[in-house]
Amino acid sequence: MLAEVGQFALILALLLAVVQAAAPLWGAHRGDGVLMAVGRQAALLQAVFVSLAFVCLAWLYVTCDFSVALVARHSHTTQPLAYRLAATWGSHEGSMLLWVLILAIYGGGVAFFGGTLRETLQARVLGIQGVLGAAFLGFLLFTSNPFLRLSPAAPEGTELNPLLQDPGLVFHPPLLYLGYVGFSVAFCFAVAALIEGRVDAAWARWVRPWVLAAWIPLTAGITLGSAWAYYELGWGGWWFWDPVENASLMPWLLGTALLHSALVLERRGALVSWTILLAILTFSLSLVGTFLVRSGILTSVHAFAVDPKRGVYILGILAATTGLSLALYSWRAPTLRSGALFQPLSREGGITLNNLFLTALTATVFLGTFSPVFIEMINNDKISVGPPYYAKTFVPLAIPLLALVVFGPMLNWKRDEVRKTLVRLRVPAIVAGVVLLAALAFGGLKGVATAGALALAAWLIAGSLMILARRWWSGRAYLGRAIRTTPRSIVGLVVAHMGLGLLTLGVTGVNAWDSDKVLNMNPGDSVAFAGRTVTMTGYELVEGVNYQAKQARFAVKGPTGAYDLRSEKRWFPSAQSQTTEAGIRVGPLGNLYISVGEESEAGVIVRMWNHPLIIWIWIGGFAMSIGGAISLSDRRLRVGAAVKTQPDPGKVGAQPVAAE
Amino acid sequence: MRRLLFILPVLGFVVLLGVFFAGLGRDPRALPSAFIGKPLPAFATAPVRPGDQGLANTDFDRGEPVLLNVFASWCGPCRVEHPVLMRLRQQGVTIHGLDWKETAPAGLKWLTDQGDPYTRVGNDESGRTGIEFGVAGVPETFVIDKKGKVRYRHVGALTPDDWERKIGPLMEQLRKES
Amino acid sequence: MRRLLSLAVAVALLASPAAAVNPDEQLADPALEARALKLSKALRCVVCQNQSIDDSDATLARDLRIILRERILAGDTDKQAVDHLVARYGSFVQLDPPMRLDTMALWFGPLAVLLVGGIGAAVYMRGRSPARAGALTPDEEAELAEMLKSEEAR
Hints:
Number of strands of chain B: 6
Oligomer: heterotrimer
Radius of gyration of chain B: 21 Å
Strand order of the largest sheet of chain A: 2-3-4-5-6
Strand content of chain B: 15-25%
CATH superfamily of chain B: Glutaredoxin
CATH topology of chain B: Glutaredoxin
CATH architecture of chain B: 3-Layer(aba) Sandwich
Shape of chain B: elongated
Largest sheet of chain B: 6 strands, mixed
Distance between the termini of chain A: 55 Å
Strand order of the largest sheet of chain B: 1-4-3-2-5-6
CATH class of chain B: Alpha Beta
Structural class of chain A: alpha+beta
Structural class of chain B: alpha/beta
Largest sheet of chain A: 5 strands, antiparallel
Radius of gyration of chain A: 27 Å
Shape of chain A: globular
Order of helices and strands of chain A: HHHHHHHHHHHHHHHHHHHEEEEEEEEEHH
Number of helices of chain A: 21
Distance between the termini of chain B: 58 Å
Helix content of chain A: 55-70%
Number of domains of chain B: 1
Helix content of chain B: 25-40%
């Protein structure tokens, strides 16, 4: 019953999306206030019905309704509740429904909160959002229906892949999708602006918060994914340049460029066509990512089941969406107002350079991911691109970018002078220099690369803190007041850029100083490793909720004290698969990572790793996300957008009263 | 001039679309053999059938196109493709076999139980011989021409459909070659 | 230069050490084992989804790890050992794509994007600098004269 309700809700949502697409676009063209209002209502209703469908599917999963094919394939009565619920988006069809849900909710958000927008702009944004919604709802209903019945109903389900039965599944996909789909709002704004033929400060003031709202969860989702892979996969890797990982990194890189570009547009009215292009491309990369995961064009541990029919449909959506918007861009963008001028040495100039590097980095990841497809087409030879390629191309481009990050916030708008800028950067430079010398003294000339990387991290952290220091130390007497009145957008900036520095620190530490050991051990054996003594204290069979495991226990004595670690090899009988759970001791200076392997005649194979400073990678990532959230909470960004005037029903595009 | 710059993104995208579209039809897991157009490397394997000669690279290059089928009794898809191989043998196709990563007695038991379509069959207990010409798993079937050169590698079970669409016509074409 | 690059690669290789190698596979000589480790991280497990032979538990990955170590023990250089596997499995087995004519775009693309973008941005900004504003056209001059006259008249 519930499955039918869900399916019906989706069909209604599709019809509403079509209405939402057609009515406001036509209404904006004709200046018809009624049609434009219809668009808003349709958007709100669409959100309601897709939510209903999603709740239905989630309920079916939680109650283990095995008469629905999807539930039977990914759930099991012994599966814990949290994972029965999270399995809702653990499959292609379910995750597609999550995608459509977030799309509808964002559309509803623009309808609900967009009261201060120019009416025709809001109408056009909703119209394009409606087109996207209709396309994806169509995809869902015609090729990936989550509510298909299984007849006869299965008595028991096939369990969700054990690797996915983890808190990570509860958060990782929703966060990522909030990001991917969130960029659709910026996309809709960009296309609406192209249709309207104008971009003004009000537009920028609206776009930046929505871009930030998408960027924050995407950053958090990617960081979470990396941390999840680290502790789940059992060998301590945290980034694999897997095609699907790259599919999340590309919109993130370009989305960061978009964020900074929108900042310039809002503050100075410059970089107009560049911001619009970035908005189109960022969302297009989200779509490319969706295509990649579901079409079977590339192999990946993340990929859903391959179905060429679905691939063709998504490719069609991608072709229409990106193709038409880029065509519109090539036609209309040259006529857009150019925007304010600025000198190369200025904050705008710095951000332009930042965007350039981010674009080159995105291109690098893109080339690495898709070249195999391209080259196979040309000469039928299969090549493969893996981590070594990215180490040689991505890293050399990222390093100058990281160094430049500190310059940006220190530069004045419009134009600045070389000497003054260098003076401002005295303190961070000194800090970085000291770190460099100390690292060289410690590591010798062989550790030049490491010393440089550490200095870079110090440069980033000191440079970010310098921004606050400059504000707070300018008037000593009013220090307390200076701290209290620091705008949140500045605090957010500092936290985010510092997060980048912490990330650099973590990556440097784990790459420069990691070590490992693999050996056979029996209970009672001891081994010295990385300044610690590891003793195997036991090896036995344990039972879990839905698995059996061989568990190895270790007693570790290290500089921080004595503690126990466990590592298991789990066997899931209903899913017929095995996972390795590692024992990890987390610490600010480094992690000890122990993983138990197969049994041999000499004992059990035990692998242990020392990962110095690795925790800072994820602390840095989450700090970036938190910085973004702090910035988003700045009320100045939300107050003061253009005040809406009542449009004449017969006139097109009423003029707003700008509240500068 | 500026106008031209704005057209670049959409042009680039159209090219990209073409690549994606073409890529859809391909199997990302398909692995072309590194030996296409080249003869098999020199190898010799022990026999599986008692009193037999085993399989060596000199068994190819005998003036007719042949199939080289890599199999094992522990492999499920091999069981699926076996009847197809028996049928092809009946139709006169010469098939040589490589018994991969198991002992000769295990391979012999397999042939006794399932039927023996092989003209020559050799045992590769360590799996190293197979690795010498790029075997990645079982089952795999190589198409080898009159001159002993590898022309095609089929990964996975050989279905009647595969024979009809790809391998059969290829063998025909190779027979007609000088 | 090559050493600097390989240094950068060693530092920046975003993978952890020895993931799936067994104790019985490891070479006795730590220097040789370190070479084997570095090489196996750059070789793809062809039956897996996107893992190196060092990361993968598959039997073929184990076989290739052992063969690689045999080649190193036999005295092969790094390039020879890798070529041995490439001869059998094709360039697909290298996670580091080869430097060939058709992979030029792959290797030089990133830098090209940066340079072309940089040049494009520079040209664009040069074309819009205030210096280009130049002198007023005759129409604008007349307009200005008119405005000044009406101001004076007040």
